[in-house]
Each structure stands twice: as C-alpha cells, then as structure tokens.
Amino acid sequence: MNKLSLRGKLLDFFQEDLGFGDRTSEWIFSNERSKAVYLAKEDGIFSGEMILQEGYKLLQEDIEITLLKRDGDSLKAGDIIAEVTGPTVDILSTERVLLNLMQRMSGIATLTWKAAEQLRESHTSVCDTRKTTPGLRMLEKHAVVCGGGKNHRLRLDDAIMIKDNHIAQCGSITAAVQRVKEKAGHMMKIEVEAESLEAVKEAVEAGADVIMFDNCSVEEAIEWRKAVPSSIITEVSGGITLDTLSQYGKTGVDFISIGALTHSAKALDISLDILETGE
C-alpha cells in the first residue's frame, strides 16, 4: 500500500470526523492517559495493520501501539488485535475512523478467504473487480490480498480491457484489439470480454493476452476454455456466488473475478475497549 496516499486519506477522514475537536472527550478528560485494546468480536481475517500504524503517526503524540495481529492473520472472537497506550483524548477521538476502516477491510478479507477456500483444490484464483467504494479502492483491494485473493486491474490505466461497448463501436473484437495494439506499449496486457464461443475464438485469433468469459454457465466455461491455448490467461466473471464458486473452479479457468468481494462484504465486528485510565 502507498503510505503517502494512505496518510493523506487518513488525514481527510480524521478532519471530516473531528471538525473543531472531540468536545465530549476533551471536556471530560484533560491530561489523562489510557491503555486500550482493539478487540475482535467475531471470527474472521484481519486487515488493517497500516491503518493503526499510520493513523497514530499522524497525531504526532506520545502513543505506543503493539500489534498482536498482522494482516492476513486469523481472528477468533475475543482475540486482541492491538494494544494502545497514550493520551485518552487522542485514543477516543480517532476511534471511529480507525474502526470503520479496519472493520470494512477485515470484512472484505474474511469474505475473500471464504471464496479462496472454495477454490483450494483447484489451480484457479479468486480476484476482485473495480466495484469498490470511491476513495477506498487501495484499502479494499489490499484487504482482498490479505484474504488470499488476487487483484484485477487497480485502475483504468493498469491494463487494456475491451468490453461489449468497445467491441460494438469498433465493429468487432479483431478491430478493437488492433486499435489498442497500435498504441499500447509492450508491457500493457490486453483483456477481451467474450460472451460466446465464437467471440472467444475471435479473441484468440486477434492476439488477446487474457480472455474473460462473461456471464457464462459452468458447461459453457468448460467448452470455451478448450478453445483457448494455455499461453492465454482465462477468467470467468458475472453472477458467481460462494455457492457456485467451486463448480466454476473445476472448469480449468485461471481466475474467477467477483465484484461482491468488495461491494457486498459485511464489516467484521471489532471494538475499542479502554482498560485503564490515569495521569
């Protein structure tokens, strides 16, 4: 993860939440210091260690943090994720932002882990999509990796992805691939979205590096995969759930992309508990 980008986001998030200050904590506490713990309230996979590390660095206060769990570690309800000691006001005023992000990321990591488990007996990997929360893509895609998944392209400039609208306007897959090959550098991969066996074969002939089987059945994925040489990466996407994931993993494709990993993950329950407060 880009630390500079993360610090900038955290600063914006803190400013949004703090306004001119945490009136409640500031008016109840003055110079008190506290020891607190971040506690897992349910089982899952943790993601968010840099949220804690960089979040507290921004405060530039005397705050000590001890991480007991790292990104990708399993959590059981009751596990302590981290211990924090420092000014009570600072611990409480940053609590909501840090928890919101860690809960969101850990929820994504947990859902991704469940998906990856469905594919453990195959060579197929699960990956995310660009269906992420605006402003949180870097964090959400990091969480997918923490859960054992892979990242699809991070942004529109990462790779060429020729979809139905591109193909329709160019007139054919062949024409679309030819246009981008005239401008793309040798490091830029070209993926083509295919919705039929004929489209898959055309994408192969056109020289695609990756072919996505879009909204196909398990039976179609098996048939279409046979038409693609092993030198070309294959991917299936569209309407795949945890219940059907293992079936698609048996089709021989290299990747299965699931937007739900990021857009439908349930936040993992994590709390901050103050253990003791003193001067």
Strand order of the largest sheet: 6-11-10-9-8-7
Instruction: Provide mean pLDDT, rounded.
Output: 95
Number of strands: 12
Large-scale geometry: elongated
CATH topology of the largest domain: TIM Barrel
Task: Please bin the fraction of helical residues.
Answer: 40-55%
Largest sheet: 6 strands, parallel
Measured by DSSP, the beta-strand proportion falls in: 15-25%
- CATH architectural group of the largest domain: Alpha-Beta Barrel
SSE series: HHEEHEEEHHEHEHHEHEHEHEHE
Give me the CATH superfamily of the largest domain. Aldolase class I
Q: Gyration radius, to the nearest Å?
A: 23 Å
**CATH level 1 class label of the largest domain:** Alpha Beta
Contiguous uncertain segments of 5+ residues:
none
Q: Name the structural class.
A: alpha/beta
Number of domains: 2
What is the count of DSSP helices, taking H or I runs of 4+ residues?
Answer: 12
For the terminal residues, how far apart are their CA atoms?
37 Å
